[in-house]
Amino acid sequence: NDEELAKHILIKDFEHFTDLRSFGYESTSKDGMLVKYMFTNMKGEQWKKVRSMMSGVFTSGKLKIMAPHLIKAATNMDEYLANLEKNQEVFEARDVGSMFTMDAFATAGFGIEENSFANPDNTLRKMAMTLVGAPGFTTGWDQFRMFFILTFPRLSKFLGVPNFPTKACNFICDVIERTYT
Prior knowledge:
The chain has helices spanning 3-12, 30-36, 44-55, 60-86, 93-110, 123-132, 140-151, 153-159, 166-180. By secondary structure, it is mainly alpha-helical. Helix 6 (123-132) crosses helix 9 and helix 7 (140-151) packs across helix 8 (153-159).
């Protein structure tokens, strides 16, 4: 609850907190590559190198370049909310927020223009929501798998239990590969 302590840990002294607890395990599959390059799983010098590369993405100039994409996603959300208001429909704020976030991130980060407000069942959104385990997009197996991996990481690796749902992981990895290669 100490705001100053949080600032020290998350901003000023961030470089001293490089080795966080790993999630999952690395393998040669796309699933393992996703785990290997998760920012929270990196250690030591690799973490510092990637952090310094990522800090350049959030400069004021880069954020200004992203602004039109965010404005477009916000305009889509505004139209969606106006339509809901006109029809006096009840909505789940979490769903609206996730659709905005997905559209903004997909457009600014990957150049993929999906209007999740017009088409909430688009493949990118469904796969991303499945990958992050959003409510309504997971199964009992997904929850058991996560528990099993966290409880028995070595056995999970030995048995080849995937860290993420395979179909969603492959889809998102393919999107990333196509965008950045």
